[in-house]
Amino acid sequence: MNLRQYFSKMRGVAQSGPPRVSLSEVFWSWTGAFCGIGAVAWIGALIGDPLDQVMMIGSFGASAVLVYGAIRSPLAQPRNLLGGHMISALVGVLCWKFIGEIPWLAQALAVSTAIALMHLTKTLHPPGGATALIAVIGSEKIHALGFFYILVPATLGPLILLLVALLVNNIPASRRYPELWF
Hints:
Blueprint: H1 3-8, H2 23-47, H3 59-69, H4 78-99, H5 103-120, H6 127-137, H7 140-145, H8 148-151, H9 156-169
Helix pairs in contact: 2-3, 2-9, 3-6, 3-9, 4-5, 4-6, 5-6
């Protein structure tokens, strides 16, 4: 492949943007995300400091987009949601514990290794990369959790999001979640 062919690949192939969704789809996506993120935040406030939500990590916002807004995507299915966060959390904690004194290396290794392991285990969930990264760059409270980070927030949060997704995504006749469990 020559240089011209290489750069021509960057133009894309689609002639138009993604299709519009119905107002009903927008409503149910909004409702699911509101209830899911609200439930994680509420439970986090019950089990910890309401002003320092260690239970709420940024990657859950991206998971909400998938499990409430792109419910048919393979990346939004329960295996991917749960497995992606759990594997990535483990990788992130290990990177922090063993090479956290070299931050750039720990960050790069956490995300890249999480992606590789999610691929190998068929649990690819893009927000998992953020879960791994947060384990490395997170606050002292995140670091103090150590391996507990894998359970709370990285497993409990997605479990809550999944429960809400099962309840809300199946209310309208036009939606069905999940497409597959495992």
